């Protein structure tokens, strides 16, 4: 169970219709790869965020499968065009079954 | 044909700008639009060093690294600040108090970072910010002290540092601090280790030059705690001191030791006038 997980998202508050905006996302997470061993030589179990999605008004913007080689505190920056006012929904899926959400509204 | 290609290549090589000069650049550091003093005239007590302009280590880093620090969202050190904000409001210890019980919001500690290490007259000792945090924890909260350079401590330092962002460093070196200043200065100019290097050999005599593949800065600590990309975590001043002395192949002092406290005071005083910019981002 990963502790201290906290998603952070930066989305402009408003945009003009059809404009490409930059979205930045960051989630604090240890991203334990499963390859390391602890002091006694026992493998440390894998614990990563394995999927990240972003939706806009129910429509998929981005859907990412994440692998163990991704480093701690994964950061994604991408562009999206905004056709209308609405809400971005961001979702992170943890190996342990936890799901972390964040939502940001945007006006046009 | 072959000859032509060769000359074209040579011309290209010559006309390429010298992007890898080791010195400080002339960029302007602003964090979320707030401009920082990252270069200024050296304080009066540095007259004998021959340095007339003091510069933040930010100027010695590559553009990508610099950009990360200029936006607090991109700055990975801010994650620790978030975590420390939670700790700030968490009740801990026998007195059943949190930091917030006495200090209210962390913004009440604006200006604190800029003047530490600071002489504490009641206790009769020179205190770093970490020592003060631990004193609060043990004396006021009845909680267990943080280990000097563990993540919780570094994060709390980062949270308190952010409140002073942009304020000029202004540590006192007179009065009771003078003794520590002199001691720190002596350490700064003492050659350590098998390589026989003092702090001054690199950071005073050779800043702006290369040390193998790396740029030597002035060794200013106004950006601490620092998020180091190579560590993927925040690093405290004393960790950095220890790393530097270790690299001279010497036995180092311990973090939190009186020697490092004195050295921190001395090195901080060499940055009097630069903005507090922690948590900074470095390579």
UniProtKB/TrEMBL annotation, chain A:
Gene3D superfamilies in alphabetical order: Immunoglobulins
Domain annotation Sulphur oxidation protein SoxZ: ranges: 10-103
Protein name: Thiosulfate oxidation carrier complex protein SoxZ
Pfam families: SoxZ (PF08770)
Coiled coil spans: none
SUPFAM superfamilies to which the protein is assigned, alphabetical: E set domains
Automatic annotation (TrEMBL), chain B:
Residues that coordinate or bind heme c 2: 199, 202-203, 244
Cofactor note: Binds 2 heme groups per subunit.
GO cellular component: cytochrome complex; periplasmic space
The EC number(s) this enzyme carries: 2.8.5.2
Claim: Signal is one of the keywords in the record: yes
Cofactor(s) the protein requires to work: heme c; heme
Active-site residues, Swiss-Prot/TrEMBL: 244 (cysteine persulfide intermediate)
Keywords: Electron transport, Heme, Iron, Metal-binding, Periplasm, Signal, Transferase, Transport
GO MF annotation, one: thiosulfate-cyanide sulfurtransferase activity
Primary location class: periplasm
BP term (GO), one: sulfur oxidation
Top-level division of the source organism's lineage: Bacteria
Reactions catalysed: S-sulfanyl-L-cysteinyl-[SoxY protein] + thiosulfate + 2 Fe(III)-[cytochrome c] = S-(2-sulfodisulfanyl)-L-cysteinyl-[SoxY protein] + 2 Fe(II)-[cytochrome c] + 2 H(+); L-cysteinyl-[SoxY protein] + thiosulfate + 2 Fe(III)-[cytochrome c] = S-sulfosulfanyl-L-cysteinyl-[SoxY protein] + 2 Fe(II)-[cytochrome c] + 2 H(+)
Entry binding sites for substrate: 240
Residues of the Cytochrome c domain: 83-169
Signal sequence, start to end: 1-21
Subunit structure: Heterodimer of SoxA and SoxX.
Family recorded in the similarity comment: Belongs to the SoxA family.
Listed name of the protein: SoxAX cytochrome complex subunit A
Gene from which this protein is expressed: soxA
